[in-house]
Protein 1
Amino acid sequence: MSAPLAPATPTGRTPILLHACCGPCSLEPVKYLRLEGFEPTICWTNPNIQPREEHDRRLGVLLSWARDVAGVDVIVAGDDRDGWERSVAPAAFDRERRCRACYALRLSEACRVAREHGFEFVSTTLAVSPYQLFDTCHEVLLATARASGLTPVWRDFRPHYPESVEDSRALHMYRQNYCGCRFSAAEAAVERQEARDLRKAAHAAERAGDTVLAASIRARIVARG
Ligand code: SF4
C-alpha cells in the first residue's frame, strides 16, 4: 500500500523532503526551492560525519537555524554508523567509490523517510557544494528516488555556493573544513598543507626576483581553487 501524500503546506507550496548535509549548505537550497514553489522539510541522516562530536555540532547548527531563522521542520532520521563502516569505509581513499556508496546510504534513508511521511518529491543539499561529486550524486539521487517510487528534484545549486558562504558567515554559522568522514578530513589536511607549501614557494620566488616562476606558482594556486 502506498503511503499517504504529505498534506499541502499552509503556504500552498508543494511539500518536498530535502536531505541536508549541514546548515550552511541548506541555506540556498531552501531559499531557491521555496522560490520554485516547494516547501522543504529537512531530513538529517549523516552517519558519515566523524567524529561523533563533529556530527552533533553540525546537527546543532542546522537545528538552530531551521528553528530560529528559516522556519523549516527537521526530521532527524537514521544514523547507521555500522552500515557506513560496512558499505563505505572499505573504499578508503578511492574517492569516487567511497562517495558514491556514502551518497547511496544517506539518500536511501532519506527516501525511506520520504515514503514513510508521504512525500512525493525528494532532493538534497549535496548539490550546492563544488567539493561534492556532482554527477555521481545526481545519479545516486535519481536511482534511489526512483527505486522508492519518488520524484527526484535535482538542481545545480553550485552557482549559489559563494552566496551560501556569504550568508552563513553573516549568520555566524560554524563552517567545517572537511566533508565529513575521516578520509575526507585527511585529504583536506593534505590539500591545505600543499596550498601552504605553494604559497611559501611563490613568496620565495618573488623574494629571489624570479617573477616567471612566481607567476607560474600563483597560477597553480588559482587552478587548485
Ligand atoms: S568525502 Fe563526504 S561524501 Fe565522500 S565518503 Fe566522505 S563524507 Fe561521504
Protein 2
Amino acid sequence: MLSYRLPQWLRRISPGVRGSKRLAPSPHAEALRTLSQFKHPPLAGDRASLLVEPDARISFDAGHGGTDPGAQHNGIVESSLNLALARYAKLRLEHSYEPVAVALTRTTDEYLSLRERGEASERQQADLVVSIHCNAATSTAQHGAMAFALPGDIAALDVARTILRCMPKPLNCGTRYAFSADADADTDSGRNGVWLQRVRNVLSPHYPRCAVLLEVGYLSHIGDARALECPAVQSGIVTAIMAGVDRYRRIVADSRRAG
Ligand SMILES: [Zn+2]
C-alpha cells in the first residue's frame, strides 16, 4: 500500500487524489513505455580506477534482454527496467566512493544465456552478484518485493534479507524470502521448492558463491507497476541494494577478522 503523502502543491491542483492512497498517474505515462523512460542522471562512465584496492567486487546482472524481454505488464517491459535499475545502482555505488568495484553483466538490450552471465561475472572477478528482476503472476493481487539466495549460501541470504528490509514502502512487504529446500521456519517446504526451482532458472550456476536474486515487485500488480515507474521508488530500490552491498562488505570484514 502506498503511504507517502502527496506534496502540498499536488494536493491543491489534484483534488481527485486528495486523501487517496493510490499514486497519482504519471503525467509521462506514454513516454515511460520505452527504455528511455527510466530517467536517471546521465551515466558518467566508469569511474577512474580506485586509489585503494576494492574490498569487494560487485556485479549487477540485469535479467532478460534482447529477444527475451521478460515479463510485460501495465506498460513496463521487465528487461528495460532491470537494466535501468542495474545501471542506476552501479552509478550510485560509484559515486558513493565506497572502495568497491562495480560491473554489469550486460550494458545494453542484449540476450545473455545463464552461462554467459556467469562467465561475465567470473571475468569481472565478482564476489557478489545481484541479479535484478521483476515478478509477474496470473493473480493480479500478488505484490511486493522478494529476494532469494540458493541453499547453503548464508552470506547471500543475509544480503537478501537486508535488501528486503530496506526496500521502499510501496514494495516492502516484510522480509519474505526462500532459500533452501530444507525450509526455514517461516516458509513451508512445498512453496519453497517451487521458488527454489524458479531461482535456479535465473541464478547462473556459474556465478561466484554469493549470489542474490532480487525481484523488485510485481509488474502484474497495478500498484507495484505504478510505483516502479516512480523515480523516488527507483531511488529507494537502489538505496536498498546499496544497503545489501554494505551488509556483504561487513560479512566479509567480520569473517576476515574471525579468520
Ligand atoms: Zn525476470
